[in-house]
Design brief:
- The protein is an alpha/beta fold and 345 residues long.
- The protein has 13 helices and eleven strands.
- The chain has helices spanning 25-32, 47-53, 77-87, 102-113, 128-136, 148-162, 177-196, 212-225, 241-248, 271-280, 289-301, 312-319, 322-328, and strands at residues 2-5, 43-45, 57-62, 94-98, 117-122, 140-143, 165-166, 203-207, 230-236, 283-287, 335-340.
- The strands form two sheets. A seven-stranded mixed beta sheet has the order 1-10-9-8-11-3-2, with helices on both faces. Strands 6-5-4-7 form a four-stranded parallel beta sheet, with helices on both faces.
- The longest helix is centred in the middle third of the chain and has 20 residues, at 177-196.
- It is globular.
- 54% of the residues are buried.
Amino acid sequence: MEILHITRPAPMSGLDEIPFPSADAPRAQALVARCPVAAQTPLTSATAIATHAGVQDVWIKDERGRMGLGSFKALGAAYVIASDAQQRDVSGRTYVTASAGNHGLSVAAGANAFGAASVVYIAQTVPEGFAARLEAQGARVVREGDTYEESMRAAEKAADDNGWDLLSDGSWHGYIDRPHRLMEGYTILMAEAIAQLPDVPTHIFLQAGVGGLACACAVMARQAWGDGPRVIVVEPDAAAALHGSVALGRPVQSSGPVSDMGRLDCKMPSLIALKGLARDADAFALISEAEGQAGAGLAMVAGFGSTPSGAAGVSALVALGDGQRDELGITAQSRIFCVLSEGPS
């Protein structure tokens, strides 16, 4: 595992016109609370993982049951569509996106709930079982490209050609408003965790694809606890989007093979997330495929069945070498917070 340590805020160029992420969890909570299937997800003390990692506590925010969709992504796109529906009738509109995983389910479910249509572009590498889940939520599924980024370009073109509403969980120059609102939905997760935690964590491990979850959790942690916890962002070494951009001080697209951590296999960061995490995170860690598998295996044995993507925060914690633990200040008294972001495939 490779870890990039920074002094906050990390200097970044090319982001002057990009807003910082929202920390307005109460607004998001008030709207999502009106959903019939909305419910708080549990925070669980993972004693077996804490023992394995040699720390005092490991607390896991378990998103596997979030609103019946199996991941934290239920809080994102569906929240944006609900916000749109508050302002005007969205029936008859079509929301289009690309998805490497659960974001597409949130778009499909949100659109279906408010009488809209949805089209989800997925790469050729996405399992057929996931395509079937999208279709079960009412989405039309289109396979395009070999990577998430290629699927995203196809979704953008479809939006332009057909007058559809593009709803991405990434952000870039010229596309800010919807992903900014979407990431506001993710703050619900961390607002719940802050209220549930019995003590302030010393360290927070947050997995990242384009970075929306990690950024939303980090901004809420800083709002609640200031500089107290160390925030570590975790990515596959095959998709070092945030790590690579922070290292160079500007947004860059990473390159690498397809990762088994498919939900995190995003080569370009969300610019809102990049700006927020350059301010709020302390370190950016890259884990190997083997480390991702090992952490997911440990989580499963401990009763937290997930995927290498969903358990990547746990994977990074247990993959730390002695020198890396010292650099992060992790001791036998450390209290660790992780997010189990999805259920098993």
